[in-house]
Amino acid sequence: MKNLTDEEIMQAVADGQLKKLSILFDRYHVRIYNFFNKMVQNKMVSEDLTQEVFIKVLKYRASYNNGNFTSWLYTIARNIFSSYYQKQKKERANVIEDDVLHSGEKLYTETNDEALEHLQNSLLKLNTTDRELIVMHKLQEIKYEQIAEIIGSSENAVKVKAHRALKKLKEIYFQSSKTIGNTINE
After folding, report:
1. Global pTM exceeds 0.70
2. What pLDDT digit, counting tens, does each position of 119-163 carry?
3. Which terminus of the chain has a lower count of CB atoms within 10 Å, N or C?
């Protein structure tokens, strides 16, 4: 069973072998959670949205049509995030400020913590579309071709949009760095 592709497993789920969904859950739940967590910076919301993705996979299993499973799954995740974002739009600033995930695990050295926090804050200043592209490509390591399929665009258009989003992120990051540096120097 370990040798089956995601597409073969999903087709089996679509054909009624529901227990096989646990294999796909094991393969993808951390990636989907990380996608949401990079988008909303909230552990509980990320867990809830991740759960919702797999509920939708189960609910809409019959609509799976042998395409690329990862693209199909991220399309569902993206739609769920979009719905969540629309519902939370007015409260978004409060959610980000009040419920930021504080992990006890240190993935980076202490000297990098401040830079990482600055990068996370800069990422949150991007519009949702740009942030989503950066998270999918740079942090989730999804190929441009799959992102194009997920968002319904061409691969070249995705490359251009991702490049522009990265440029905006760099501008925000370094502009904020200058402001922080000027404040410290005053």
Report:
1. no
2. 888 888 888 888 888 888 888 888 888 888 888 889 899 889 988
3. C
Please tell me the distance from the alpha carbon of residue 9 to that of residue 170, in angstroms, as a whole number: 40
Spatial separation of the C-alpha atoms in residues 22 and 19, rounded to whole Å: 6
The amino acid that residue 132 corresponds to is E
The tens digit of pLDDT for each residue in 54-105 reads 999 999 999 898 789 999 999 999 999 988 887 776 554 444 444 444 444 4
CA nearest to 6, candidates 141, 37, 20? 20
| CA-closest candidate to residue 76, choices 120, 31, 124 | 31
Compute the distance between CA of residue 156 and CA of residue 125 in angstroms, rounded to an integer: 25
Q: May I ask the CATH class of domain 1-102?
A: mainly alpha
